[in-house]
Structure formats: C-alpha cells, structure tokens
Amino acid sequence: MIVNGQQQQHIAIADRALQYGDGCFTTMAFRNARLEFFENHINRLKLACKTLHIDFDKWVELECCIFNVLKTADDCVVKVIITRGVGGRGYSPVGAENPNFIISLHTIPSHYPSWQTKGIKLTTSSITLACQPLLAGIKHLNRLEQVLVKQALSKTSYDDAIVCDTNHKVIETSAGNLFWYKDNTWYSPDLSDSGVEGVMRNRVLTVMQENGLECQIVKQAVSVLFSAQELFVCNSLMMLVPVVSLFNPTTQQHKNFMVEETKKIQHDIQHAINLEAIKVQ
Fold this sequence. Notes:
The protein contains 7 helices and 16 strands. With 281 residues, the chain is of the alpha+beta class. It has 2 domains: 105 residues, D-amino Acid Aminotransferase, Chain A, domain 1 (2-Layer Sandwich), CATH 3.30.470; 165 residues, D-amino Acid Aminotransferase, subunit A, domain 2 (D-amino Acid Aminotransferase, Chain A, domain 2, Alpha-Beta Barrel). Strands 7, 8, 9, 10, 11, 12, 13, 14 and 15 form a 9-stranded mixed beta sheet that branches. A 7-stranded antiparallel beta sheet has the order 2-1-6-5-3-4-16. The longest helix is centred in the C-terminal third of the chain and has 17 residues.
C-alpha cells in the first residue's frame, strides 16, 4: 500500500475518511501490462473531489506513483482513495487542508471471466438507496448501503441483486451499472438522484452512440425489466456481464434473457479497451 507516495500500511486515526467517510475512490483494472481507462478514472476522482470540495492538488504525483507501482505488478485491481485528511471540528471540514491519497493493489476476482461468457442470475433487493442529488453519481467513501445489499445477497444463491431507490426506481446492482434491451432500444437508469456513475457505464454509452445505437436514460420501476429481452451489468473490473435470468422474490416473477445484443456490445467494449489501455513499462 502506498500513502502519499510512501510505501506504508498506516494512516492517521483522525483522518476524516475514517471518522466520517469523507473522501472518494475509484477502482481500475490492470491487465496484460495495460491500465484500462486510466484518464476516465482520474477524471472521475477529480469530479468527486470537486463535488465534495476536497482541495486535492497532487495529481501528477498520484499518477506517477500509480505507474511506478505497476511496473513490477501482475494483473490486478488498482484502488485509489483520496481522503480529506486530518482536521476540522466535528462534521465541519474547516481546517482539513492536507488531503491524502492511498494506492493499493488487489487480486482481480477469478470468477469474472466465467461471468462474462456464461452470464449471471440476478434477484431484486429489498434494500433501497437514498435519494441525494448532491452525492449522486460520485463514488464517495460512504458505502454502507452497498454493504447491506451485499450482506443480504450473501444469504441467497444469486450472483447479484438489482437495487432501487426509495422512490422504487431501478438504479443499479450491488456492484455495477445496469442496461436492458427491448425492441431495438437500450435503456439505463437515471442516476441523477442516487447511484454510482461508473466509468464503464459511461464508456458503454459512448460506444453505443458511436455505433448508432439508441440508449434512453430512464426512471423506471423494476417491473419493466421483466418485459426486456436482454440485460447486462457492467463495471471496470467485470467489464460487461450478460444477465441470463432475473427473479423478484416479492412478486415471484421470473424471466430468462437472451444475450445476442449484449455479446455485440461486449465485443465493442473489448475493442475500445484494446485501443485505449495504457501500456506500463
């Protein structure tokens, strides 16, 4: 683990990331000696810092540290955290003037390649996400809602769960963004009130636009998914994962899905990765 450019395992107990979850993070994939969608991840961190009013200015140092640590690394997950640092009285951030950055490397989940080829089975979660437009989209350090969703999911036999907001509109799954396909049109949830605006989600939207595919951003109830022809889940680590079935334990609805159109998007995204990933030497 690297903290502010130094190899170490410690950070101040008084850091606001620990005290209040005051910070942001991103996770990117390093595969085949190439860092995927690096600029998009850095821009996501910059947007989050701007949204949270964290005056972080060590971007050059952060980027250099990331590439240096990867020179001797195998395939891995690169997690970057930016904290507001130590300072402030109570909730007030006044006085916290020295943000920190943390870089850590982790193993890429071994089941993702199987998910990409065989697909996954989804259920719906009874846990909802709060609507908070001021924080919607960014990947801040307050992830307790996702912890609760994962905790409940672990008691089922499903691979992931679709999560709605408190207005009962579909937002995402526990770990990725969601797309569905019906009658030659793709759809994805509106994230203006809650949810994470993933790097892969945004890249998928760009690829769809470049290929002349219609994708509508919508606020819809989970019931619409049972009339869809295809679903997929995506994030920067799993890339695109087809959904082969969906079950709603509340209504007992069950639906199986095709994967043909999803496979086309998978191919296009892999092509984009091959073109844009940065070689680390």
